[in-house]
């Protein structure tokens, strides 16, 4: 049997080893993590057949990798700088395709939505004046923003559906010997909306002398999708480091079409869950409405007593929590 002194020493050693293990487990990812740029550089294939010919192949490959690293680092810095910035109202209107709307137009629409909401709540529900004003304020704030977000999401979906076809046009044009700007001009004339108008903006930037990589980066700012981000990165790298543009864009087109297929599969798999969530969310409202039609005195206590108001408020809160949880469970991001 070990003595108390040796037991204390053993316990101290085990405790120190445990602390060191915990610290290593916490800080090991930070110590061994490499930047995303270096990971991508490590996966780059060897540079061309000239890397094995006469001259200084190692220096040429090193220069190419350094230029690619600098381009990727610059793009990453720009995207990180814009990542936490929320789009302003004019940017949201531009992304929604509401180019004719100004801030004054938006203010007038908000006032109109608030007045209509207040009148409806007063005429149909017969609510007190203070509650009616609250409904009107909420309608004036949220209804126009909901409409803008709806238009924006629909426009982004249309752009994502049509964008792979535009990339295919660029690939075929470049393979046939057309310059990149001419391919972009063809898309700006013959593609479907909203791709046509966005590529027309790229051509207008080119006419004003903006470099091609900057004008394509502006496309990602106007249409903040993963697809346009990939496109901007490919064009920026090709314009700065060279390489086969048709091959790079061909690979990008395949990636975009695979993402489109994946979205369709996700939509099909989650359709049943979304239908179930809609039924569960609508069931309390439908049941309360039917009870109000068949036995109004039975459910009137919820609207005429303070206890009923508290019960309605608590139920609405928990319904909101449940809907948000179901929405989080059935929405997939990739």
Report on the architecture of this protein:
This protein is mostly helical. Among the domains are: 155-257, Receptor-associated Protein (Up-down Bundle); 270-334, no CATH class. It has 15 helices and no strands. The longest helix has 47 residues, at 129-175. The chain starts with a helix and ends with a helix.
Keywords:
single chain, 334 residues, mainly alpha, Receptor-associated Protein, 15 helices
Short description, anyone?
By secondary structure, this protein is an all-alpha fold.
Mean pLDDT: 76
Low-confidence stretches: 28-37, 47-56
Largest sheet properties: none
Shape type? elongated
User: Which topology of the domain at 155-257 does CATH recognise?
Assistant: Receptor-associated Protein
Secondary structure category: mainly alpha
Please tell me how large the radius of gyration is: 30 Å
Report the span from N to C terminus: 59 Å
Q: Which bin fits the share of residues in helices?
A: over 70%
CATH architecture descriptor text of the domain at 155-257: Up-down Bundle
Q: Write out the CATH superfamily name of the domain at 155-257.
A: Type II secretion system (T2SS), domain F
Beta-strand proportion: under 5%
* Helix-strand sequence: HHHHHHHHHHHHHHH
CATH top-level class of the domain at 155-257: Mainly Alpha
Q: Report the total helices.
A: 15
Strand segment tally: 0
């Amino acid at each position: 049997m070990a003595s108390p002194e040796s037991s204390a020493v053993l316990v101290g050693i085990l405790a120190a080893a445990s602390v060191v293990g915990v610290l290593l487990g916490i800080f090991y990812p930070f110590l061994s993590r490499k930047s995303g740029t270096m990971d991508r550089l490590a996966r780059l294939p060897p540079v061309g057949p000239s890397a094995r010919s006469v001259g200084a192949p190692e220096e040429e490959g090193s220069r190419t990798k350094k230029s690619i690293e600098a381009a990727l680092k610059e793009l990453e810095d720009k995207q990180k700088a814009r990542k936490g910035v929320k789009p302003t109202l004019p940017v949201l209107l531009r992304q929604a395709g509401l180019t004719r709307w100004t801030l004054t137009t938006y203010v007038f629409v908000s006032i109109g939505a608030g007045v209509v909401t207040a009148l409806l709540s007063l005429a149909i529900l017969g609510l007190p004046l203070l509650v009616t004003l609250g409904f009107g304020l909420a309608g004036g704030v949220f209804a126009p923003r909901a409409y803008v977000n709806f238009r924006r999401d629909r426009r982004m979906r249309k752009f994502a559906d049509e964008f792979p076809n535009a990339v295919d046009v660029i690939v075929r044009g470049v393979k046939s010997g057309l310059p990149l700007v001419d391919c972009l001009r063809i898309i700006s004339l013959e593609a479907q909306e909203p791709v046509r108008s966005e590529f027309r903006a790229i051509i207008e930037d080119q006419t004003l002398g903006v470099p091609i990589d900057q004008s394509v980066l502006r496309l990602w700012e106007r249409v903040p999708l993963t697809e346009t981000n990939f496109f901007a990165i490919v064009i920026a790298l090709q314009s700065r480091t060279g390489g086969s543009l048709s091959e790079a864009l061909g690979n990008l087109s395949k990636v975009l079409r695979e993402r489109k297929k994946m979205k369709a599969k996700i939509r099909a798999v989650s359709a049943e869950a979304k239908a179930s969530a809609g039924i569960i969310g609508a069931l309390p409202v439908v049941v309360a409405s039917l009870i109000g039609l068949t036995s109004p005195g039975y459910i009137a206590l919820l609207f005429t007593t303070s206890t009923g108001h508290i019960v309605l408020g608590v139920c609405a809160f928990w319904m909101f929590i449940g809907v948000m949880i179901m929405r989080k469970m059935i929405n997939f991001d990739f």
